[in-house]
Design goal:
Layout: E1 2-7, H1 8-19, E2 22-25, H2 33-43, E3 55-58, H3 62-74, E4 79-83, H4 85-100, E5 106-111, H5 126-129, E6 137-141, H6 144-161, E7 165-170, E8 178-183, H7 186-189, H8 195-203, H9 223-228, H10 231-252, E9 259-263, E10 269-273, H11 277-291, E11 296-301, E12 303-305, H12 309-315, E13 322-327, H13 338-350, E14 357-362, H14 372-381, E15 391-393, E16 403-404, E17 419-426, H15 431-443, E18 449-456, E19 464-472, E20 485-490, E21 505-514, H16 522-525, H17 528-536, E22 540-544, H18 546-552, H19 560-571, H20 576-590, H21 596-612, E23 614-616, H22 640-654, E24 687-691, H23 701-705, E25 711-716, H24 718-722, E26 731-732, E27 743-748, H25 758-762, E28 768-772, H26 773-790, H27 803-807, H28 825-835, E29 839-843, H29 847-852, E30 853-854, E31 857-858, E32 870-872, H30 879-906, H31 912-924, H32 928-942, H33 950-957, E33 966-972, H34 973-979, H35 981-989, E34 995-1000, H36 1035-1040, E35 1046-1050, H37 1056-1068, E36 1073-1078, H38 1093-1102, E37 1109-1111, H39 1113-1117, E38 1123-1125, H40 1158-1162, H41 1166-1174, H42 1176-1201
Parallel strand pairs: 2-3, 2-4, 4-5, 5-7, 6-7, 10-11, 10-13, 13-14, 14-15, 15-16, 17-20, 20-21, 21-22, 29-32, 29-33, 33-34, 34-36, 35-36
Antiparallel strand pairs: 1-8, 6-12, 8-18, 9-11, 17-19, 18-19, 22-23, 24-28, 25-27, 26-27, 30-31, 35-37, 37-38
Helix pairs in contact: 1-2, 1-6, 3-4, 6-10, 11-14, 12-13, 15-19, 15-20, 18-21, 19-20, 19-21, 20-21, 28-37, 30-31, 30-35, 31-32, 41-42
Length: about 1200
């Protein structure tokens, strides 16, 4: 068998491809790559055991994927799907049907947390445990090798036993872990399959040549009996699974059983567990038994449904006195979690172990670390006279006090001789991909085995990543975090003050820092505790300015080639020349579609590396042992609750110490306060804009386009200007008369800026210069802090619905976790500047929910009066309905308020002086601005007399509803075009005034760039690696057919004012409204970089690729055309004929290469240009069709624009 380094997803997909005809899928983290990988294999010529490529079809949702799997199996195809978490939840109804019809379907699940008090993309068993009653059989894998082997068992058993199998493995810990494993080749699989059973299954499929009927409606007289008729299939299935395991063992030499015992034959304490934790317990048990005199063991449960009760009883040693059952799930209100309940029932029914104590515990929710120290704590707890039951491990529960304390650090000897590495990096710098390359280079070396594991913040490309790499001379099975590293790399210099990177490095280990700092600056830049660790642990300390090399080679921000080369050089795991040769070979293969220039630039970076690597001799550095310099004081918190949250939760989480926070610190419902991102100061930009007042034209466009609200205009009164600190440059405010006497200033927030350059790129006066962060941060950060604390908002001087007026308002979305240059955030930020004080936001799961609300980072904030957007997330698929529910509730509650006010107006008992403010509010109640103003006056007059009447007190209880609120449902195209379309359609057809903002990135941005129905023809995306073959869904035109829905299509970079006007008109429109916004994305591969996203929007509109329009049914009621086209026709007379009415000139920033065709636009983006390299012939066919699609859409719009 071939040895190869793979992750769990690829291992499962390898088998699923071999033994399936059809896979219907929908992308979800962490298994999103499985279908795409399988599809690419087919395009590369791989064939399954039936001689065909696996037919991979992307559906609109997991509900659709499950339905299609059901249909495919009913029609005689061996069918599979890949899913997790909420996706699996959507499949449950179909799972009952598939199982009820005895179809040999296999689901491969990288199990993941469910969204409860919060969403989590990380791993546990909540999702699969929610499926245990569906009738699916369930098989658990504990490692990447097991994932491949048991995936084969799953398919073999499904065919043999005529039952569906849910094969699950731990999300992230196994799905994304890379291990050196033995890959089972397809020819070895072939003789294991019962082909007669396959043929029998196909003969019994739906076919008009031999028709039958299935899925009928049954009555009470027969349903029960028919349901029981399938019992024999489940009774026989455990033996069938064991037979399949034996078959796989015959070709691999690896032995598997339904349950396996590992440990002392006379164990007195045994842990029963499923999944990757089983290997952690096994490793720890071996260590404790051999080194500490313990008698412990572990039972690994592999078949969970049907539960192997007899095999469990036979596997347990008779000597056991206490059993701890570990569940990676939580089932509130149950006596125990699922596995524990099954174990208790099985042992009771078998009549053995009557005197054995059984306790149950929860561990590892949302990928919470589970390590040998915790295993030992559990074994020790089992010796107590009254051990905790139930218990938790890995947290500090100071509320219900269920947690077992972990008081001792255990380092097992199993990992001895293993070289361990931890790399701290920032998303999109290439470190994760680089670590995978190194793992493949070394792990595929004869005699060496590799394990690579990656953890991430859920922030987008600017979030932290931690890569962990183990290299050994035997298979590495340690499924837990590294605790003693030989090599630690800090790939982002600002992390030296964020993470305790050196607490896990061994004495004498290697520490590599990527920074621009010379040795003499190290005492100033490195915190005292880090310098102390370097000295006391006698670390070999190296520094390299990888960012500079990347910039010189034109690779920024990707430093992976540099840092990979450093690792190969310093680790010495393989000969350096061999490693570099392999690295160059791999990069040539990886970047071959990018062209020879990209390859040569990467090779140049590799060749420049070693000469730039410097070892730092700390004994020669003056001031190395100096104490820490005083930190800059943070501004005082006005909100004590926010201060408590920052101190007890936010700061520990940001510094990587969230595991230590006790249960009592949290709000049970998962809420967090507003504006916490303002306390992060991530300092992740390498260059930030510096303002030149002499060149500034005071347009505020830099602020408008900034994705992170990290550059803003300030107007200062004469009094404020007189108090401005040194360096706070001012100039006279110009423009409107009402600005006379004010001073103008543009301020960057360098610690919060991501350095995307959008502001400097579009600046019409070239007043912003991108400057190294190191050169300006100490000067500019205090200025930003002063401005926020001492300059009042001047948000009423200019109309809000203008560029300048909107940017003088408080952005209630700031410093988000979005990618540098993100195309989505400017729209939402603008929305909050226009209506933030009265908004409720229903946010679909996706990029926008992650960059906006990744706990504990809340990018939504309030104005100085404490008002701001109320934000909530339900699910991916129901966001339209979620927002609609908010609207219905608010409208209903305000009707009651209006009734109360009316009753007070009409009552003779009401104090006479209250009648006027009551009347004023009642008359203004439907106007957002006036209702808030009159409501404030009414509230002030009611408060002093609250106790005079129950009616006054009752009305004041609802006073927060005096101002009319607005509900905006926001989300991406995956939600609006696909998974949530049915609900969105229903909500917009309701006639109710719910507002919708669709941030159209034309792909599934959050899961890695898969195709959505918004993806245009010819674009290369995951699930369409050879270019999409059908046209983009025209959502806007579809919604126009209702006739009473306001519809707009906008692109901020093409026309600032049109975007503002569309949002304002949608808000004012007395019915449902949808605004569809073009959002360039990292997945588009914009050739100059995502910082050019604003320019790219303009190019899209100029080329006719993205039309700008506003459809206002109120205009039709007034006899005017309802549709106004706001974008020009490429190459035509654009004088405003045919209903088109360009609102304003394009933004004033220069475009050196104006475009007039869709092809000119498209070739600036990898998603289109790549097709020319992948398949030039197909590109030549599809790209003219894309132009035709755009022309056809424009013609349809022009036709609609002529209608009155």
């Amino acid at each position: 068998m071939k040895k190869q380094i793979l992750d769990g997803c690829t291992a499962a997909a390898h088998v699923a491809f071999a033994l399936s005809d059809v896979a219907t899928v929908y992308p979800i983290t962490p298994i999103a790559a499985m279908g795409d990988t399988a599809q690419k294999w087919g395009l590369q010529g791989r064939r399954n055991l039936m001689g065909q490529p696996l037919e991979v079809k992307e559906m609109e949702s997991e509900l659709g994927a499950a339905g299609a799997v059901h249909g495919a199996a009913a029609a005689g195809a061996l069918a599979t799907t890949f899913t997790a978490s909420q996706g699996l939840m959507l499949m449950i109804p179909n799972m009952y049907k598939i199982a009820g019809e005895l179809l040999p379907v296999v689901f491969h699940v990288g199990c993941r947390s469910l969204a409860t008090h919060a969403l989590s993309i990380f791993g546990d068993h909540q999702d699969v445990m929610a499926c245990r009653a569906t009738g699916f059989t369930m098989l658990a894998s504990a490692s990447v090798q097991e994932t491949m082997d048991l995936a084969l068992v799953a398919h073999l058993a499904a065919i043999e036993g005529s039952l569906p199998v849910l094969h699950f493995f731990d999300g992230w810990r196994t799905s994304s872990e890379m291990d050196t494993i033995d890959v089972i080749d397809y020819e070895s699989m072939r003789p294991l399959v019962n082909w007669e059973k396959v043929n029998l299954f196909r003969r019994h499929s739906m076919n008009p040549e031999h028709p039958d009927l299935r899925g009928s409606a049954q009555n009470p007289d027969v349903y029960f009996q028919n349901r029981e008729a399938a019992n024999r299939f489940y009774d026989a299935f455990p033996a069938i699974v064991q037979q399949a395991m034996d078959k796989v063992s015959s070709i691999t030499g690896r032995s598997y059983h339904l349950v396996d015992y590992h440990g002392a034959p006379d164990a007195d304490r045994v842990i029963i567990v499923m999944g990757s934790a089983a290997d952690v317990v096994s490793e720890t048990s071996d260590y404790l038994n051999s080194e500490n005199g313990y008698r412990t063991g572990v039972v690994k449960v592999r078949l969970y449904r049907p539960f192997p009760a007899r095999e469990l009883c036979e596997a347990l040693p008779p000597s056991v006195r206490c059993i701890a059952v570990l569940d990676r799930t939580k089932e509130p209100g149950a006596c125990h979690e699922p596995l524990c309940e099954d174990v208790i029932t099985a042992l009771h029914d078998c009549g053995k172990f009557r005197d054995t104590r059984i306790i149950g515990g929860r561990y590892g929710l949302s990928s919470k670390e589970f390590n040998p120290s915790m295993v030992k704590a559990i074994f020790d707890e089992m010796t107590r006279e009254e051990p905790r039951n139930p218990f938790t491990i890995g947290i500090t529960d100071d509320v219900t006090r269920l947690s077992i304390p972990v008081t001792e650090t255990v380092e097992t000897n199993v990992a001895s001789g293993t070289y361990q590495t931890i790399l701290y990096a920032i998303g999109n710098d290439g470190t994760v991909g680089g670590t995978k390359q190194v793992a493949q280079i070394i792990g595929n070396t004869p005699g060496l085995y590799a394990q690579a594991y990656f953890s991430y913040s859920a922030k987008k490309s600017g979030g932290y990543t931690i890569s962990q790499l183990r290299i050994g001379k035997k298979p590495v099975t340690s499924a837990y975090a590294i605790d003693g590293a030989d090599y630690v790399g800090c790939h982002k210099s600002s992390y030296v003050r964020r993470f305790d990177m050196l607490d896990k490095i061994k004495p004498g280990g290697i520490f590599v820092l990527n920074s621009p700092w010379t040795p003499d600056r190290m005492p100033e830049k490195l915190p005292a505790d880090m310098r102390k660790a370097i000295t006391e642990k006698k670390l070999r300390f190296y520094n390299i300015d990888a960012d500079r090399i990347a910039a010189v080679c034109g690779l920024s921000p990707r430093i992976n080639m540099v840092m990979e080369t450093v690792f190969l050089y310093l680790s010495g795991l393989i000969p350096f020349d061999e490693g570099v040769a392999a690295l160059k070979e791999r990069l040539s293969e990886t970047y071959r579609h990018e062209g020879g220039d990209v390859v040569s630039r990467n090779i140049k970076a590799v060749d420049m590396t070693i000469a730039a690597l410097k070892e730092i001799n700390v004994s020669e550095i003056s001031g190395w042992s100096a104490p820490e310099a005083p930190a800059r004081p943070e501004p005082a918190f006005a909100d004590s609750a926010l201060e408590t949250f920052i101190r007890t939760i936010h700061t520990p989480c940001i510094k990587g110490r969230g595991d230590l926070i006790p249960v009592s610190a949290f709000s049970p419902d998962g809420k967090m306060p507003m504006g916490t991102t303002a306390c992060e100061h991530r300092r992740i930009a390498t260059r930030v804009p510096v303002w030149n007042a002499d060149k500034c034209v005071e347009c505020a466009e830099c602020s408008l386009v900034c994705p992170h609200a990290a550059i803003r205009p300030f107007l200062l009164s004469a009094e404020e200007a007189a108090k401005a600190p040194e360096g706070f440059t001012l100039k006279d405010a110009t423009g409107a008369q009402q600005l006379k006497g004010y001073k103008f200033h543009i301020q960057n927030f360098p610690e919060d800026c991501l350095g995307c350059s959008s502001c400097s790129i579009i600046c019409p006066g070239h007043a912003l210069t991108m400057t190294p962060l190191e050169d300006v941060v100490d000067r500019e950060a205090p200025l930003a802090m002063w401005a926020m604390a001492n300059v009042t908002l001047k948000d009423r001087l200019l109309p809000a619905e203008t560029v300048n007026g909107s940017q003088l308002r408080q952005p209630c979305l700031q410093f988000s976790g979005a990618c540098a240059g993100c195309g989505e955030t400017p729209y939402v930020k603008l929305l909050t500047q226009l209506f933030g004080q009265r908004m409720l936001i229903a946010n679909a799961t996706g990029c926008s929910s992650i960059w906006g609300a990744n706990y504990p980072s809340n990018a939504y904030c309030t104005d100085p009066q404490g008002k701001g957007p109320a934000w909530g997330n339900s699910l991916f698929e129901d966001n339209g309905e979620y927002g609609y529910g908010m609207l219905v509730a608010l409208e209903h509650r305000r009707k009651r308020v209006a009734m109360q006010v009316r009753e007070l107006i009409d009552s003779p008992d009401t104090l006479p002086y209250l009648k006027q403010p009551l009347e004023a509010w009642y008359s203004a109640k439907d106007d957002p601005e006036l209702s808030a103003a009159t409501g404030g006056q009414l509230r002030a007059m009611l408060e002093p007399v609250r106790d005079l009447s129950p009616a006054y007190a009752a009305l004041l209880e609802e006073a927060d509803l005096f101002g009319r609120k607005t509900v905006w449902a926001i989300g991406g195209d995956g939600w609006a075009y696909d998974i949530g379309f049915a609900g969105l359609d229903h909500v917009l057809s309701s006639g109710e005034p719910v507002k919708v903002l669709v941030m159209d990135t034309e792909c599934y941005s959050n899961t890695g760039g898969q195709t959505s129905k918004a993806t245009p023809r010819s674009a290369v995306a995951k699930y369409n690696p050879d270019g999409k073959r059908v046209a983009k869904k025209e959502l806007g035109r579809m919604m126009m057919t209702y006739g009473n829905v306001y519809v707009a299509s906008v692109a901020l970079g093409a026309n600032y004012q049109q975007t503002i006007d569309a949002l304002a008109e949608a808000e004012r429109y007395p019915g449902p409204a949808i605004v569809i916004a073009y959002c360039p994305c990292l997945n588009h591969g914009i050739r100059p970089g995502l910082g050019h996203s604003i320019v790219e929007q303009r190019r899209a509109v100029e080329a006719g690729y993205w039309p700008l329009y506003r459809y206002n049914p109120q205009a039709a009621a007034e006899g005017r055309p309802a549709l106004t086209i706001d974008s020009v026709i490429p190459g035509a007379d654009n004088s405003g004929a045919n209903g088109s009415s360009p609102l304003t000139e394009s933004p004033r920033y220069p475009d050196p290469e104006p475009v007039s065709t869709v092809e000119q636009f498209a070739m600036n983006e990898d998603r289109y240009a790549d097709l020319s390299m992948i398949d030039p012939t197909e590109a030549g066919i599809l790209r003219p069709q894309l132009q035709a699609d755009c022309n056809r859409n424009r013609e349809a719009l022009e036709h609609l624009a002529k209608k009155p």
